[in-house]
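Running this now, will post back.
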Amino acid sequence: MVGLGLAGADRVEVTIVIDNFLDVLMAGEVGVARYQARDFGVAEQLVAEHGFSALISVERDGDRRTLLYDAGLTPHALARNLDVLQVSVGELRAIVISHGHADHHGGLEGLLRRRGRSRLPLVIHPDAWRERRVTFPSGGRLRLPPPSRRDLEAEGLEVVEERAHSLLLDGSVLVSGQVERVTEFETGFPIHEARERDGWRPDTMIWDDQALVVNVRDRGLVIISGCSHAGVINALRHAQRLTGEDRIAGLLGGLHLTGGLFEARIQPTVEALCAARVGRVLPAHCSGWKAVHTIARAMPEAFVQPAVGTTVTFQAAPGSS
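Update: finished.
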């Protein structure tokens, strides 16, 4: 980071722990490792669910440090997948929650059961505690319960509320904080509401949405987003402004382009991703079938199908320093 001190990483690994999609027969490729099941007779297998969680491991000067970004929807799914993937949760250095929707924090209980009490920092935007819902045009409603600060602190987590950007892992990882909204087409979630003292009110912008950013030396930024409620192009440009780095080595996570309300944003989003020359794109979780296939057709060299258990590696250029 030019002005904020984001250190360049030698190597970054992003492992998808929770996603909507699972396929244990997918082939890997250079820089993309797929989970390989060994025995379908074993009771504990990877599971997929409507949610997102990723492990981010950063190597710099021979030191490797790992954090968890989001925790999926249910405790049993996160705990099971961490076990199957043989993740040593005792080595985690921090947890970051992308925003307050339950499909990104609901699995924390499963993690805490495995780890036990510890003063592990959990970084979260202060708006993430708000009670929310989606009210559909049909009249149906979907409740989106927030995390409980009291419960998290009772489990020993050190809750760190931060509205602005912040640095973790000795300056190796940037939490974007509240993302500036600058595009014309990323206009929020029009049927999203939050409870206020006098009742339910529109909460279109979902200001707590925040991404993770790592700078791979001489390659560019790796950006991980839980749902991209801020708009994925807004998130990319926000990261570029904060870091002074224009190159995007990789983008991974939910793009929230599924459903009739959001599909009109697919084409301008894909055009902007192409213009940004993103090295690898893994549209996960809430990206949607139409968006995934549009990206795959428009960016065949960059597109990677995400799946639970997939690890993507970004390596610094040989000889860089």
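The mean pLDDT is 95. More later if anyone needs it.
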